[in-house]
Amino acid sequence: MSNSLFALRTAIAQSAMARRFAGAAAWSVLGAVVSSGINMTLMMMVARILPQDKYGQLILLQSTLMSVSLLAGLGMSAVATRYTAALRSREPERLARILALCIRMTLLGSVIAMLSLLLWASPVATGVLSSVDLYVPVLLSAPSVLFLTLDLYQKSVLIGLESMKLVALSTLAGVLLSLPTMLFLTHQYGLEGAATALSAAAFYQVLFSYLSLRHERVRHDLSRNTAHWRGERSLLGSYALPALIAGGLVGPAHWAVQAILAGRPDGFTQIAILGIAMQWFNVIMFIPGNASKVVLPILTDSLTGNDHKGSRSLLGFSILANALIAIPLAIGMSLFATQILQLYGDSYNDSTLPFRLAVFTAAILACIGPIGTMMSAASRMWLAASTNAAWAALYVGLVYLLFGDSAAGVTQALIIAYVFHTIWTILFARVHLRQIANATAHSATQAPDK
């Protein structure tokens, strides 16, 4: 461990790109840790207020809203981050046109998704979510789809601008307002109150991210002529669609397995157990996930500028940093699984197996996460889409055919799917790193002698 930490310090000291990463990551990680810590505390309190089956219904409702909002974004958030990072200093006029396309598509997708939930709340509740009790909560929480989708787009532009401080502060401000709102409404009105609070929380987030983005648009002079934005529509097929498939499959896959569980005996209780396990899965992914938001614009800028050596260095640095964070966290959480679960109430004391499987799966994913970021930075989106589609098909298929009776079974399917995902991701990394090495060697031979 000491040798690894020394290697990490040396990498930061010797690499300008690593120092750039570390500076931006500090704000990203700080914001994520504080905001996520507040959210975790909030969900523990809500678990103690609601009965176990109602808490499971809330988890399924949250998962549904997140999945719908990801699909409603039509891949525009990925386009916004990638091209903001690549073009903000090189081609600001084209960037303005691309962002004009992105916001129009985001608004279109999010409004259609929200109206669809409002119009078909009854069949969604009874046919898809397997509970007539969720009809009113679906209606009350439907506006959150619009707010979540717009918030994701706005923060994606901020990430592309490397404005991580504003992302962190706007997220924290929204979370601080959400805490009393959720507790009050849940205590007073139960599941319906919690559903209303989901819409309020999403509104807080989109409001603060809008104010932050408005400030940055002026500072970076992004308010340029966008009359010819239709000329950028080719990005919808070349980047947005594969980005939607790649990034939009994760949430819907988790939602699908929860929907499968909901139709089984004691289903909502098992969803509550699975939801808690996945909350701590996300705890491990907090820092690596937010670090990847910093890596993407820097790596994109590096690859766009043909800095192959710097790109390879940053990739290795990111993998090492993630491993040093995620693996010790997974071990510690596994050792104290019983004590952590007691925070949610006595009814969760016997849920240690899915909890431990989930946190070790998160450690695996954290270590290979930077490779997925490299795919996005290198515009290899169809490759990323195909690998994620294979993972989602394997995960959902295993749950449906073999492991769909309990939260423990779902987490077993999850770790199996991610083991296979790790294998084919590493194979891609080997090929791509070899290409980078060859490009670096070619650049060196072409450089003039001094």
From TrEMBL:
The keyword Acetylation does not apply. It is found in: Cell membrane. The keyword Transmembrane helix applies. It is a multi-pass membrane protein. Keywords: Cell membrane, Membrane, Transmembrane, Transmembrane helix. GO terms for cellular component: plasma membrane. The chain crosses the membrane at residues 55-80, 101-122, 134-154, 166-187, 193-213, 234-255, 267-287, 314-337, 357-375, 382-403, 409-429. Pfam families: Polysacc_synt (PF01943). This is Polysaccharide biosynthesis protein C-terminal domain-containing protein.
